[in-house]
Write a structure and sequence with these properties.
Layout: E1 2-9, E2 13-14, E3 17-18, E4 25-31, E5 35-46, E6 55-63, E7 80-81, E8 86-92, E9 97-105, E10 110-120, E11 136-148, E12 159-163, E13 170-176, E14 180-192, E15 199-204, E16 215-220, E17 225-230, E18 236-244, E19 252-262, E20 265-267, H1 306-309, E21 314-317, E22 319-325, E23 328-333, E24 338-341, E25 347-353, E26 362-370, E27 380-387, E28 408-413, E29 418-424, E30 429-438, E31 451-460, E32 470-477, E33 480-487, H2 505-517, H3 522-531, H4 535-554, H5 567-590, H6 594-614, H7 620-644, H8 652-676, H9 682-700, H10 713-716
Helix pairs in contact: 2-4, 2-9, 3-4, 3-9, 4-5, 5-6, 5-7, 8-9
Length: about 725
C-alpha cells in the first residue's frame, strides 16, 4: 500500500477569557477521504512579561460542526439536545510554550472543528491603555496520513486481501448506496501460515468526536464471523480495518464479503407538486402513482392492499429547502404542513444540511398532533431525528439509533400533542425525520389507523433570537459563519435562558435611574460656571449632562431602555462631551487671555473629535488632552506667580476650600473609573464617577474676575434713570 502524508495549518489566534461563545477561538479543518491517521499538533504560548501567570487552555474537538461547550456550567434551553464535547487541557506554567499531540486513527472524512479558550473572565472592566494584559496564543496544525488506492469491497463479491503484520492493519472501503436498510459484513476465511486458525479484529466505521460509534468484530479460529448493521450511512464510503491480533509477524490472508438489503421507498411526491410551491395544498392521498414511477400505499385501502404495503419499508414526503439568509433555512412540505403517519411503515422527511455552511446554527423541529385525526386514543406517534441515515424501525429501536449515529427521539400522543427538538450546531450531513404510529398492544392493533402530524422544521442562527435579554451575533472564521448569543442583565446560557444570576426588573430600573440621574450633579457646576461668567464652559457641561444621560438610558441591557437617537451617535457624543469638559475646565483654571483660551477651546475640541473617531476607548484620548491642558495651566500659574512674586493662586482659602477638595475628588473619580469598575458593579461605580467628576468641576472652576460684578438682572433690565459710576482710577503722587 502507498501512503501519502499531508500537512494543514492555520494562523495563530489570540486567546480570550471565556464569557460567551464569541470568546472561543474556532478553527476549521477538512480531513480528506481515505485518511487512516490524523495527528493534531496543538501549540499554546504566552508572553514573557511579569503580568503573565500560570494559565490553563481548554481545547474542544468535534466532527461535522463547531463543538457545543459550556465552561460556565449554565443551563441550556428546554428541549435542546446537549452532548458533552471532547476536550483536553493544556497548562502554561513555567514553560512559555506547550506542544501537545492528539492522534486519531481512521478519522471520519469531512469537516473537523477545534475551539480553544481561557478560563472564565473575571468581569473587570479595564480601560484600554492603563494596563498591558498578557498575550496567550494558540495554533493547531493537522497532519494526515492518507492511503492511496484503498481497496474497494464490492457488494456481494468476496474479496481476498493480506494483512502484512500486526503493525500494518488492512484498510478497505465499501460504498453504501441510498435506501440501504441493512448491511451484512462477513469474514468468510482467515489463513495464517498455511493454517486455518488466526485471530483478527475487524473495525467498521470511522472515529467521530465527541462520540464514536465504531463497530468492532473479533474473530478467532476458523469460524465465520459476521456482523449486521441496521441503517448504515447512505451514500457514503464506509471504512473497514482488519487488524492482526497475533504476536508473530506473519501474514494473514482474509476473505470478506459485504451485502446490502434495500429499502424500497414509497413516495407521495410527483413532478406536478413542484408547480405549486407557493400554495398550501393537501396533496394526493397515499396510493396515487407518481410520475417518477415510485409506488405509494393507498391510506384508505390499507387493509385490502397488504401485499403492496409489504413491498416497501418507508413512505417519503417531498420537502423543499428554502434558503432565507445566512444560516437560516426553512423546510416546506409540498403536500401541506400535515403529514400522514401509519404503523406499518415510517413516514420519512429529508432535511438537507449538507452545504457546509449550515452547521453554525440551530435545527428546530416542531411536531403538533391533530387529535381529531387519531383513530386510536391510546396510540403514540414516535419520531426520530437522525443524521446520515434514517431510523427505519422506530417501533423496534426506541432509542432512535442507527448504525453509526445516536438519533434524537420525539413523541406526541393524545395526552401530549406537541413536541419540540432543538439540535445545537447540527453536523454537516443529510438529516432525516422518521415518524411512525405505535400502539401499546402491538402493531396489529393499529394496522388500519392513521394520524395527522403537523411538522415545522427550520434552521435558525439563534433559537428564539436569544430571547429578550440576549443578542444574536454572527461570528466568522475565515469563510465559515456561525452564530452565538451574547447575554445581558445577568442572564446567561446558550440562548440566554438561564436566570440564575439575572437582574430583576426593579434592579434594572434602579441601575437606569442611577446612571442617568447621577448626571444631574452637573447642575451645580453649570450654575457655578454661569455665576462666574464662564458661559462657554457652562454650555459644554450642559452638552455633556444631556448626552451622558440619554446615552446611559440607551446603553442599559434590560427592559428599562430609552434611545432618542442611534446608539453609536449617543456614545460618541457622550465620550466627546466628557473629554471636552475636562479640557475646558483645566484651561479655564489656567487664566490665560480670553482670545488664546477660546482658540485652545476650539482647536482642542477638533483634535479630540478626531482622536475619538480613531479610537473611542483609548486611554490617551482622555489622558492626552488632560496632560496637555495641565502643562498649559502649570506654565500659566508659574508665569502669574513670577509676575506677582508670590504663590498663585495667592489665597490660602482658595487652596484649602476649593482646589484641594476638587483635586481630591478628581483623583478618587479616576481611581474608581480605572480600577474598580466591573460588569456587576458598573451601575453604581460609574454613577459614583459621574458624581465625583461633576462635583470636582464645581470646586475647580476659578472665581470671576475682580472687575466684574455678579449677575444683577434688576440693574441690567431696568428702564429708569441711573447714577453713573466713575470707574476711573485715582492716581496718587508719592513725594
Amino acid at each position: 500500500s502507498l501512503y501519502v502524508s499531508e500537512y494543514f495549518s492555520q494562523s495563530a489566534q489570540k486567546l480570550s477569557f471565556y464569557s460567551w461563545y464569541g470568546n472561543a477561538k474556532l478553527f476549521h479543518f477538512h480531513v480528506p477521504e481515505d485518511t487512516v491517521l490524523l495527528r493534531w499538533l496543538l501549540q499554546a504560548s504566552r508572553g514573557k512579561g511579569p503580568e503573565c501567570t500560570n494559565m490553563e487552555v481548554t481545547v474542544h474537538f468535534r466532527y461535522g460542526a463547531p463543538p457545543v461547550i459550556n465552561p460556565l456550567g449554565t443551563r441550556f434551553p428546554a428541549n435542546a439536545t446537549v452532548r458533552p464535547s471532547y476536550n483536553i487541557s493544556m497548562t502554561l506554567s513555567s514553560a512559555v510554550q506547550n506542544n501537545t499531540f492528539v492522534n486519531i486513527t481512521t478519522p471520519a472524512a469531512g469537516d473537523w472543528f477545534i475551539a480553544a479558550h481561557l478560563p472564565e473572565a473575571a468581569g473587570r472592566i479595564e480601560v484600554k491603555g492603563f494596563s498591558t494584559p498578557c498575550t496567550y496564543m494558540f495554533q493547531p496544525d493537522m497532519f494526515v496520513l492518507r492511503l492511496i488506492d484503498m481497496p474497494v469491497l464490492e457488494p456481494g463479491v468476496a474479496m481476498t486481501q493480506t494483512v502484512v503484520s500486526p503493525a500494518k492493519p488492512l484498510h478497505v472501503k465499501v460504498f453504501v448506496p441510498k435506501y440501504t436498510a441493512t448491511m451484512w459484513f462477513e469474514l468468510q476465511s482467515c489463513v495464517a501460515n498455511e493454517q486455518k486458525a488466526c485471530a483478527v479484529r475487524v473495525v467498521l466505521g470511522s472515529i467521530t468526536l465527541p462520540q464514536s460509534f465504531q463497530r468492532i468484530l473479533t474473530c478467532t479460529g476458523n469460524v465465520k464471523c459476521s456482523l449486521g448493521l441496521d441503517s448504515p450511512p447512505w451514500e457514503k464510503w464506509l471504512q473497514i480495518m482488519v487488524e492482526n491480533l497475533g504476536t508473530a509477524n506473519a501474514e494473514l490472508s482474509v476473505e470478506m464479503v459485504a451485502s446490502f438489503t434495500a429499502c424500497k421507498p414509497g413516495s407521495t411526491s410527483s413532478f406536478l407538486n413542484f408547480s405549486s410551491l407557493n400554495q398550501s395544498q393537501t396533496g394526493p392521498r397515499p396510493g396515487n402513482t407518481g410520475t417518477g414511477g415510485s409506488h405509494a400505499v393507498p391510506a384508505g385501502e390499507a387493509s385490502r392492499n397488504t401485499s403492496d404495503q409489504q413491498s416497501f419499508c418507508l413512505q417519503s414526503q417531498p420537502v423543499v429547502r428554502e434558503d432565507l439568509d445566512v444560516v437560516s433555512v426553512r423546510y416546506r412540505l409540498l403536500n401541506g404542513p400535515s403529514v400522514p403517519v401509519y404503523s406499518i411503515f415510517p413516514t420519512l422527511l429529508f432535511l438537507g444540511l449538507n452545504t457546509g455552511m449550515d452547521s453554525g446554527g440551530s435545527l428546530v423541529v416542531n411536531l403538533l398532533l391533530n387529535k381529531t385525526s387519531l383513530s386510536l386514543a391510546n396510540a403514540t406517534v414516535l419520531a426520530c431525528v437522525s443524521a446520515a441515515s434514517p431510523v427505519l424501525s422506530p417501533n423496534a429501536t426506541q432509542n432512535c439509533s442507527t448504525a453509526f449515529f445516536q438519533g434524537y427521539p420525539l413523541s406526541v400522543s393524545a395526552s401530549s400533542t406537541e413536541a419540540m427538538l432543538i439540535v445545537l450546531y447540527p453536523e454537516t450531513s443529510d438529516w432525516f425525520l422518521s415518524l411512525q404510529l405505535i400502539c401499546p398492544r402491538g402493531q396489529g392493533e393499529c394496522n388500519n389507523a392513521e394520524a395527522k402530524v403537523t411538522v415545522v422544521a427550520y434552521l435558525t442562527p439563534c433559537f428564539n433570537d436569544c430571547g429578550l435579554y440576549g443578542q444574536c451575533s454572527l461570528l466568522r472564521r475565515h469563510g465559515y459563519l456561525y452564530a452565538g448569543c451574547s447575554c445581558k442583565a445577568g442572564w446567561s446560557g446558550w440562548s440566554c435562558t438561564d436566570d440564575t444570576k439575572a437582574q430583576s426588573v426593579s434592579a434594572q430600573n434602579l441601575a437606569t435611574l442611577l446612571l442617568t440621574l447621577s448626571n444631574l450633579m452637573f447642575l451645580p457646576a453649570i450654575v457655578v460656571a454661569v455665576y462666574h461668567y464662564c458661559l462657554v464652559e457652562a454650555s459644554v457641561y450642559t452638552y455633556t449632562m444631556f448626552f451622558s444621560t440619554f446615552y446611559h438610558a440607551c446603553d442599559q441591557p434590560g427592559v428599562a431602555v430609552l434611545c432618542i437617537m442611534d446608539y453609536d451617535t449617543l456614545q460618541y457624543c457622550d465620550f466627546l462631551g466628557s473629554v471636552v469638559s475636562i479640557w475646558v475646565t483645566i484651561l479655564c483654571m489656567s487664566r490665560v487671555k480670553k482670545i488664546l483660551k477660546y482658540v485652545l477651546f476650539l482647536l482642542g475640541t477638533l483634535l479630540i473629535a478626531m482622536s475619538l473617531q480613531l479610537d473611542r476607548r483609548g486611554v490617551w484620548n482622555m489622558m492626552g488632552p488632560c496632560l496637555f491642558a495641565l502643562v498649559i495651566m502649570i506654565a500659566a500659574w508659574v508665569y502669574h506667580g513670577v509676575k506677582r512674586r508670590g504663590c498663585y493662586p495667592s489665597s490660602w482659602k482658595r487652596w484649602v476650600f476649593y482646589l484641594l477638595p476638587g483635586i481630591t475628588l478628581a483623583f478618587i473619580a479616576i481611581s474608581v473609573y480605572a480600577f474598580m469598575e466591573t460588569n456587576e458593579n458598573y451601575y453604581y461605580t460609574h454613577s459614583i464617577w459621574h458624581v465625583l467628576v461633576a462635583s470636582s468641576v464645581a470646586f475647580l472652576l476659578p472665581p470671576r474676575e475682580k472687575h466684574k460684578k455678579p449677575w444683577a438682572w434688576s440693574q441690567k433690565l431696568t428702564c429708569r434713570y441711573q447714577i453713573c459710576q466713575n470707574d476711573r482710577e485715582e492716581l496718587y503722587a508719592v513725594t
